[in-house]
Amino acid sequence: DADVTQTPRNRITKTGKRIMLECSQTKGHDRMYWYRQDPGLGLRLIYYSFDVKDINKGEISDGYSVSRQAQAKFSLSLESAIPNQTALYFCATSDPDGSGNTIYFGEGSWLTVV
Amino acid sequence: DAKTTQPNSMESNEEEPVHLPCNHSTISGTDYIHWYRQLPSQGPEYVIHGLTSNVNNRMASLAIAEDRKSSTLILHRATLRDAAVYYCILRLSSGNTPLVFGKGTRLSVIA
């Protein structure tokens, strides 16, 4: 089983609909992240959380919200999806280890907004 | 965050060594050099990291310049499965900043 699990893996939704992407991890890490990747581009950070009570905006947080329900769970919501939010979304986790900490990624969730 | 510069793409023949360069002239003394790679249709995965000394692991070697302003990821024998985008990223030792990805180097491996 994967250490970082994302659901759904693929979703097509209509413009204006609310959609939630869920992430759960079994690594026991405190830190969790949501990234977005557009075709041919690198990953961009949407939101991150360093513990259950901590939520921080990344570079492209507009149009998104998150919820850290527990140490192991971090969900990303698009309140009113729009076509330019069509992308591949990655959840990731990490824990500080004194060397910048290794980050572990999920397999990604493809979201298409039509 | 200190920036890194990598070539957009590189090509290698299968079974040959590959040297992927990264420039990071503004690196600070507390920055670790991390490398990740992203295989097609997958999330990025950790490859290797180092601070000052060269590092080896089962996946690759990391050669760090003496002044730390550049580094090279070395794949000793490229295979088709090594075709991926390779990202060079600087990280504070505390890890208190999120991972910031550049565009990386797209490595193509020719059979």
Distance between the termini of chain B: 38 Å
Protein structure class of chain B: mainly beta
What is the radius of gyration of chain B computed over CA atoms, rounded to a whole number of angstroms?
Answer: 13 Å
Low-confidence blocks of residues of chain A: none
Instruction: List the secondary-structure elements of chain B in sequence, H or E.
Output: EEEEEEEEE
What is the number of helices of chain A? 0
Mean pLDDT over the residues of chain B: 91
Query: Between the first and last Cα atoms of chain A, what is the distance in angstroms?
Result: 32 Å
Task: Report the principal-axis shape of chain B.
Answer: globular
What is the radius of gyration of chain A computed over CA atoms, rounded to a whole number of angstroms? 13 Å
Order of helices and strands of chain A: EEEEEEEEEEE
Main pleated sheet of chain B: 5 strands, mixed
* Helix percentage range of chain B: under 10%
Structural class by sheet pairing and helices of chain A? mainly beta
Secondary structure layout:
The complex is a heterodimer of chains A (114) and B (111).
Chain A: E1 4-7, E2 10-13, E3 19-25, E4 31-37, E5 43-49, E6 56-57, E7 65-70, E8 73-78, E9 87-94, E10 103-105, E11 109-113
Parallel strand pairs in A: 2-11
Antiparallel strand pairs in A: 1-3, 3-8, 4-5, 4-9, 5-6, 7-8, 9-10, 9-11
Chain B: E1 9-13, E2 18-23, E3 31-38, E4 45-50, E5 55-56, E6 61-64, E7 70-75, E8 84-92, E9 105-110
Parallel strand pairs in B: 1-9
Antiparallel strand pairs in B: 2-7, 3-4, 3-8, 5-6, 6-7, 8-9
